[in-house]
Write a structure and sequence with these properties.
The protein is α/β, with parallel strands linked by helices and 299 residues long. The strands form two sheets. Strands 3-2-4-1-5 form a five-stranded parallel sheet, with helices on both faces. Strands 6-7-10-8-9 form a five-stranded mixed sheet, sandwiched between helices. The C terminus is likely disordered.
């Protein structure tokens, strides 16, 4: 594969299973002159697995500022390079953003080689509404700041995803159980790896089935948005009691399947036409006449 000189390629690497790397990613990693890696030991395992001997050097969170200038200087000499992180795409909750900025500021080209993504993988298996979502990365380490961030996210209408480290996963699930006890969650651990584990339900229910050995590995927590939660049957009945029975059943079925209530009403209008006046409305319409007769009788 012939690559242009002076170009930096951002190469997505597997989030667990080495078989998930793309053919294009392997071609680029073979074709560049050098690879800047978050952890050279981790990336070397991938390269050895696929018989790639391209030279490696480190570019991680602690040396990224200096490496950014070094990478720009390498490109200025006409070399071709790749930037990788341990899993997923450079710059997305990982080092890389400073390197990209420095390379662009120096006037060089940056190209992306997309591939595996823990965010997309977690959303795909969550069973939650994914029409819109927020990716919030890692939550703050301190409990107070973490809870404040969660309150902000929990107030949003769309599904959101956060990453969590093994030693903090239980505490974050406990915070979710306290702040939003009825909210649906998909807790995804070790995605694409041998011990992949996806647990769905409320945070409290997930915690109840979580043994210490289950906490190992990186987590992606997918949380239903405020507007996508199926509302309680009693609330739904109160909200929809003004509808005719067929429409109410249609909407209830959509909501039970995970469709947001507002969207369920929009679909009902599209399929069934505008809502008709309900029996309750007709009863209310008769009320003034009853009141009038009562007043006349009193007179």
């Amino acid at each position: 594969m012939k690559l242009e000189a002076g170009v930096l390629h951002l190469v997505a690497t597997p989030i667990g299973n080495l078989g998930d790397v793309t053919a294009r990613a392997l071609d680029v990693l073979r074709g560049v002159d050098w690879i800047a890696a978050e952890d050279t030991r981790h990336t070397r395992r991938l390269l050895v697995h696929y018989g790639i001997a391209t030279p490696l050097f480190s570019a991680h969170a602690h040396n990224e500022r200096a490496r950014a200038q070094d990478i720009a200087a390498r490109l200025a000499k006409g070399t071709r390079g790749a930037l990788v992180v341990d899993a997923g795409s450079p710059g997305v909750s990982d080092p890389g953003a400073r390197v990209v900025r420095a390379v662009l500021d120096a006037g060089f080209t940056v190209r992306v080689v997309p591939g595996p993504s823990a965010v997309i993988a977690a959303l795909s298996v969550s069973g939650l509404d994914t029409a819109a979502f927020t990716f919030a990365g890692f939550l703050p380490a301190k409990a107070g700041a973490r809870d404040a961030r969660l309150r902000d996210l929990l107030g949003r209408p769309e599904t959101f995803v956060v990453y969590e480290a093994p030693h903090r996963a239980r505490a974050t699930l406990a915070a979710l159980a306290r702040l939003a006890p009825a909210r649906n969650v998909a807790a995804c651990r070790e995605l694409t790896k041998l011990h992949e584990d996806v647990r769905r339900g409320t945070a409290e229910a997930i915690l109840a089935g979580l043994a210490p050995e289950h906490e190992r590995g990186e987590w992606a927590l997918v949380v239903a948005g405020a507007a996508t939660e199926p509302i309680a049957k009693a609330e739904r009945g109160a909200a929809d009691e003004a509808l005719d029975p067929a429409r109410a059943r249609f909407i209830a079925g959509l909501v039970d399947s995970g469709v947001a209530p507002d969207e369920a009403h929009r679909r009902a209008e599209f399929v069934l036409g505008p809502a008709r006046k309900a029996k309750r409305a007709r009863t209310n319409a008769r009320a003034p006449r009853t009141g009038s007769r009562t007043r006349r009788e009193a007179e």
